[in-house]
Amino acid sequence: MMNVITMQCKAELLRIFRNPYYVFWSLILPIIFYYIFTRIVNTNTDDNGLWQAHYLMSMTTFSVMGSSIMTLGIRIVQERVHGWSTYMRITPLPEGVYFFGKMFGQSVMHLFSIIIIFVAGYIINGVSLSASQWILSGLWILIACAPFLALGTLIGTMKKVDTASGVSNAVYMVLAILGGMWFPTDSFPKGLQMVSHWLPSYNFGNGAWELIQGNALRWENILILIGYLVFFVVLSTYIRKKQEVV
Amino acid sequence: MDTIVEMKHVSKQFGNKKAVDDVSLLIEKGSIVAILGPNGAGKTTVISMLLGLIKPTQGTVQVMGKDPRDIEVRQKIGAMLQEVSVMDALKVHELIDLIRSYYPRPLDIDQLTPLTGLQDKDLNRYANKLSGGQKRRLGFTLALAGNPDLIFLDEPTVGLDVTARRVFWDQVRTLTTQGKTILFTTHYLPEAEDYADRVILFDQGVIIADGTPDAIKSKLTLSSVSFKSEDSDLRDILRKLPNVSDVYEKDGRIYTVTEDTDGMLASIFENKFAVRDIRVEHGRLDDAFEQLTTHAEIDNKGAVKS
Questions:
Q1: Whole-number pLDDT of residue B293
Q2: Helix residue ranges, H only, chain A
Q3: Is A172's pLDDT higher than 90?
Q4: Which SMART domains match (chain B) (predicted)?
Q5: Per-residue pLDDT tens digits for A91-140
Q6: Where are chain B's structural domains?
Q7: Which CATH topology does B3-218 take?
Q8: Which residues is B6 bridged to in the sheet?
Q9: A152-162: burial string, b at 16+ Cβ within 10 Å, e else
Q10: A1-12 pLDDT, tens per residue?
Q11: CA distance A232 to chain B (A)
């Protein structure tokens, strides 16, 4: 059994890291954004050091949220469309192991993205945080992306790769922008701020933004994310069960 | 002989369409069974139910005495599905090792490649970069990876040329010498004839014939008595004769399809039908099957109506 889990995790890891889109969307793009909005564009912030750390968290959450929704979602659709999921169902591999392998692969990839982007922040701006701030914010991003992984599995119930990729792209961008990952929500009009504060992306980002200011995590962020997690898991399980009944 | 597969009064309905209609069958351990039939006959539906991929609307399906979805069953079966698909971004040997790890007693790669003709140089290539033929060999390798007792092959040779097809069946044959049971679907009649011990002929969701290839052959082969006649009422009279399963006109001749050509001749003379230029014909198997596969209807007597 142990061997099966190891093999499954290894295969998922290989597949994720061999995907060239991963390197671009999850690493290069957020780092370029980070460079532009902390070095080139003058954002007129009072505390430049804080802004550089804040935006580093924005870009890291942006990256991890993207791979949770898109990489996972589109991959699940691809596996089904190509008949691979059907094949897996006739093998003795328990579904749980298959799922665990996917989540493990994603988490390792996220950890890798977090480290690379944090290092980039340090190199580009000399972002300085305490050791516990680095570790806690990294852990927060690694764990609190769970609702987006669940959203990925929801995207994964779509019939066509094109639909899944279009929808996940749109959802990703809307969540990122409205959640304040590109521009802080303080700059939004009041009404939009209200909406934003209920989005999973804002609550995901805000955990990290609080941590780097030396604050504790806020309960409302955690509860809203748990709410989204439950909602997406239930919805995606329901749709999957419905599709399976043939 | 032990039974390895059992279907009891199985039906499968998709919307309004009955893909499989009250099918019962037993398959014995160690046999090579062909499920033969035209496209849309219900072959893939039967295989999918045996693999536990879809549930029958009615009836029961058992493989090795258990529900096909039972993990113990899955450990002992292997399948090559119609659409051979492979995970992307994995090399062939990585994929084979992955699948092998799912089974309690897998075959080694060294044992697998000679069985399936997968070449050593292909092992290091990316699985999704293989050509169609190589992918199929990989699909076959994956089906055998767990050293299964029962192997399902759904249209395994579609798209292969004659040589590749022969090589493939030679490989399958070596498996049966190891006591494995093989169940394959095909719409090529010669393939079923040459490689199966038993042929189950499906059409429109029902079994219309089941037996050794020779028995199927004699059932499919049609005989007819044909003649010319100007009597326009004759066709209706002929239709009412016993043993006549069909009457049709072709190239100015009237054909009466019957298993008993001698009896037919006797009744022509007894009834003094106004016919001339009588011919007795024994149809060829290929023709009969071709009629079948071009959406002809078959009645339960096993005769073909065009």
A1: 57
A2: 2-17, 20-22, 29-35, 48-66, 72-81, 84-90, 95-125, 131-144, 146-155, 161-178, 190-197, 200-212, 219-244
A3: yes
A4: AAA
A5: 999 989 999 999 999 999 999 999 999 999 999 999 989 999 999 999 99
A6: 3-218, 219-305
A7: Rossmann fold (3.40.50)
A8: B26, B62
A9: bbbbbbbeeee
A10: 778 999 999 999
A11: 26
The domain of A32 spans 2-244
pLDDT in tens, B202-258: 888 888 888 888 777 777 777 788 888 888 788 888 888 887 878 888 888 888 888
Residue A145: band (very low, low, confident or very high) from pLDDT cuts 50, 70, 90: very high
Nearest to B89 among A8, A15, A86 (CB): A15
- CATH number for the B219-305 domain, one of 3.30.70.260, 3.30.230.70, 3.40.50.720, 3.30.70.980? 3.30.70.980
For A89, the closest chain B residue by CA position comes to: B53
B276 burial via Cβ count (<10 Å: 0-12, 13-18, 19+): exposed
Nearest CA in chain A to B54: A246
**Residue B51: closest CA among chain A residues belongs to which residue?**
A90
Chain B positions touching A82 (Cβ under 8 A) are 83, 85
Q: Which of residues 24-63 of A touch B (CB under 8 A)?
A: none
* Pair of tokens at residue A211: 């941590």
Which amino acid would we find at residue A72?
L
Which residue from B79, B137, B145 is spatially nearest to B107, judged by alpha carbons? B145
Domains of chain A: total: 1
The residue of chain B nearest to residue A9, with distances taken between CA atoms, is B98
Task: Closest CB to A7: pick one of B51, B86, B97.
Answer: B97
Question: So what's the ipTM on this one?
Answer: 0.84
